[in-house]
Amino acid sequence: MEKGGIFPVFWSRWMLSLLPLMPWLDVSSSNLSPSGINYEVVALMAIKMELNDPYNVLENWDINSVDPCSWRMVTCSADGFVSALGLPSQSLYGTLSPWIGNITNLQSVLLQNNAISGPIPATIGRLEKLQTLDLSNNHFNGSIPDSLGVLTNLNYLRLNNNSLSGPCPDSLSNVKGLTLLDLSFNNLSGPLPKLFARTFNIGGNSLICARNSGSWSNCSSVSLNPISYPPDDLKGILDFSAQSQHGAMRSRRIIIFFAASVGSLLFVVLVVMFIWWHQRCNQQIFFDVNEQYESEVRLGHLKRYSFKELRMATNHFDPKNILGKGGYGIVYKGCLRDGTLVAVKRLKDYNALGGEIQFQTEVEMISLAVHRNLLRLYGFCTTENERLLVYPYMPNGSVSSQLREHIHGRPALGWSRRKGIALGTARGLLYLHEQCEPKIIHRDVKAANILLDEDFEAIVGDFGLAKLLDHQESHVTTAVRGTVGHIAPEYLSTGQSSEKTDVFGFGILLLELITGQKAVDFGRAANQKGAILDWVKKLHQDNTLNMMVDKDLKNNYDWVELEEMVQVALLCTQYNPTRRPKMSEVVRMLEGDGLAERWEASMKLDTPKSRSSEQPQPKYLDFVEESSLVEAIELSGPR
Fold first, then answer.
1. pLDDT tens for residues 220-279?
2. Buried b (16+ CB within 10 A) or exposed e, 528-560
3. From the CA atom positions of the chain, what is the Rg in Å?
4. N or C: which end of the chain has fewer CB within 10 A?
5. Helices (H), 295-431
6. Domain 294-368+377-392 adopts which CATH fold?
7. Class of domain 399-628
8. Domain range annotation of the chain
């Protein structure tokens, strides 16, 4: 039979029907069976077959593929296993296949804001490594599977805004590392088990909230460290009171009064103990009491380091260990006691970051953004006077440093590596903007903040300090942060940032990769006066693109690819932010899909007639007073 047409569908259904009967398929040690079948591919295809995909976001999921790591919305770990499935806000409907339980190395499943219905597969309980499960804002029905209680590594669980019914399973009390649990706006009923989530929400479940209105003071609120009510210590007294109903009325009143008094006293004691404990914890962090125990504390999958431990790792923050300086603080190279090399960022302006609880919550939420092109956060440290973040050490430094380094007279970054860096950075920003919940705006995209691992893979850094932006907001207004030359004009003039400000910064990054120059580099190059964007626009208009290419490349580049990359950069840096593409469109254009059409449409909008009806577009430097054009301190060393 000829390959194509109905054959792949028939073959995939046949494979899916036979796979449970294949005892030789060991999914615990390898993603390939002895016959070469990738069980993760088969499981992902089963998921695709049970979902309706109106916008073809799963178009490149192919049953004939050996490796799913290049598929859209799929992220793999360094050892080649699928570690994250991110399909939020993709208008998907249908049901979630139980085959998801066969992707045993999954750490993150993000399916929020779709229209998926049917039950939550109990097979999710097989995902022992799962840390994040977000099925919120769908149409899931049925009960919450008991098997979720087996996921002891789970720290972020959102099932809110579905049609789930029945009781909350007692097994959830076994998951004691939850940072956030949201079961709000379902049809849950029955008594609640003891929940150990630091933050939880059960509002919108009328059968729970109405029944427990006397027990839960505010059923729609988010609470910290929930405790069961009444306290266990009172149960014996209350039981005794119930059994004494045949006694004298006066004795009953005495018992009830006594129980109420004890309850009130216990409540006051609990409050005092909580305040004392909270203050003691803060004091312990600051004075490094019980150093050995504190260094082992973990919140979810983040480690909480002690200040003393990080001070020792960096040799008392020795200036010789400084890797770089940036707008948020100083980065030091460190070596932990187990020999792990890390980069320790010591934040400045720590008072502006809010209190300890707020800082921890924001860091924990940001750490949920996991992607192969995003800098992973190991952990953090807070004291009364310090805020520190701990990242893996990046041996090849930043793109900014590599563009200015040479190996035996040859550029450290050849043309193919520069293209790879562009695409990897775009994929990381796409995840932050369109696949992360809540979405994140970086606000300082530049070569100095794109780090390179041992394989020169692009890793977007410093996004963890950007302003978190909820999906319901279109922009956020803050004090302008970033580096002149990379900041979008509308952000400079209004202080309002959006995804399109990051797109502008990415366009400037492309120009940095092409030219090897800084975004603002006064007097450093005879043919560059002022901002790199104005210079490149003029060279493009004069059809002299060869004048902008980094001389260190020594003409070892592809002319067609150069022209395409310049076009993408100019599309990203258009004055009007509404004309700039989204990062998902940028990724597709860099992959060779849709650039010609987008460029042609842009040229039609930029005809002389249309320009005459608009205000003339000023040069980039017209947005900035000359006194503010200071050279930015860059993270130029390895991190």
1. 444 433 333 233 333 333 333 334 334 444 555 555 666 666 666 776 666 566 555 544
2. bebbbbbbbbebbeeeebeebbbebbeeebeee
3. 28
4. N
5. 307-313, 356-366, 399-402, 415-430
6. Phosphorylase Kinase; domain 1 (3.30.200)
7. mainly alpha
8. 7-209, 233-286, 294-368+377-392, 399-628
